[in-house]
Amino acid sequence: MAATEHGFVVIGAQSVGFSITNLRTLKELERGKYPVAIGEDIFAAHQILPETVDAIVAAFTAIQQLFADYGVKAITVSGSHSFFEAQNAQFVWDQLLSRTGWAVQPQTLAQESFYRTQAVFARFPHFSEITKTGTVLIDISSGSVELTAFTDGEFGFSRNLSLGPLRVYEVMSDLQRTVNNYVEVMQDYIDSRLLDFMRLLPHAEQYPNMILMGSALSLFETLIPTGERMVETDRDGFDLIYREVTHSSDQYLSEEYDLPINQVEQVLPTVLLLYRLVKTLNSQRIFISNLKLLDGLEADAAWGAGFRPVTLDPTKEIIQSAQNLADRYQVDVAHRDATVTFVLQLFDRLKKLHGLGKRERLLLQIAATINDIGSYVDTHKHYEHSDYIIRASELMGLTRTEQEMVATIARYHSSDLPQLNLGDLPEMGAARRLIIAKLSALLRVADSLDASRQQKITALRVSLRPDAVVLTATASDDIALERWTLQQKGKFFTAVFGLPIELKGRTSR
Predict the structure, then answer these.
(1) For 329-348, what is each residue's pLDDT tens digit?
(2) Can you give the residue range of the structural domain that contains 51?
(3) What is the DSSP string of 158-203?
């Protein structure tokens, strides 16, 4: 088996899916799933039951045999965000590791959104053409809804809401036997949860196109022709589906749409949720896709392996997500952009000194973009507010650990300092603590270079000498404040890298 073949496994709310994929071509040699009712455990009992763990182990064992038959060595095993919502998720993770040898990688909601976006970039027909006008991607899993918007062909923003159809059904199942107007009550419940969510969305943009995808769309996937990725309908066609579902029995839906009877219970909340989103966003063209999280993992792995099945660099989405967060908290754009420019120049010119790579550069860029968001709460100790806001936010494409690293770097960009032995970062391993220290030191220097918030420095030369790092600035005005600030904040740089750093400059007028 060629080294380009990669095995993927995803634990979702309703099944364990898998594929064997050629990363060079994104062609799948095998793909399938094992039905496992994990979500029913999580949303009803808030934990994964022993018999469900047994079912996951059985699925893993069968998939392992298939991978072995194909000779697949490179394997990625992921668990959806809903899987890790279970109260006993860590215990189950350890049981799966001990019984199968597979360590399940957790996915945050922001990561899942990132991978699904990669899926549509890589596999959705005519995606670049469709997104020339406002397009919203709605991904519905059993436990949540992810809304990702595109304008003029570019990623705009992403929001998540914990309102998946299985979650709605489990919350409201008792009502079905006690009220006559169950559909109306469920609609009211969905509307109440959507109200604040929709209020936070940008209102200036129009989204005439809607792409629907996700593990909860079993009903709609029966409409997609075999071998195709999607089917298109319009508002009238979607209204017909809505009226049929809200006036039909479970038995009829099961037979008409070829659904297992245990999935029919999710059809009503799925359709009610989508109907409200279509109405609110006033979308006219509706594309129903069978793309899954699995497709996004394949595309991202191909990009990471050096292949280019996706034309858009995925880091653009991550950076845009950070800029959206900065805009939401009204960060000073001019200072933000100046800081980002300086810090990336420092990183690139001092590679021999810090020895870090592309991923660390991206984390530094994100930290420089959002380090001041805490000022929205209070300028006093704003770095502390930045820390907890970043930890509580959704940053597309970052792992939970990476997001915590960014939050910590942002905390130490200002007057606060980590202990020199980094003992106040016990939650991070030694290697990550050192990365945080290096990136924080670089960010402190970059922030100093615009201490006046007037963008006086118009050009910067970075020189790494045996005995010092010298910054030579061309400025539009006196930079005495920047020089004094660097003397104070640059002490941590010297402690981390063992070299003093100084700022020289001249005015350009």
Answers:
(1) 888 999 999 999 999 999 99
(2) 5-107
(3) EEEES--HHHHHHHHGGGGGT-S-HHHHHHHHHHHHHHHHHHTS-S
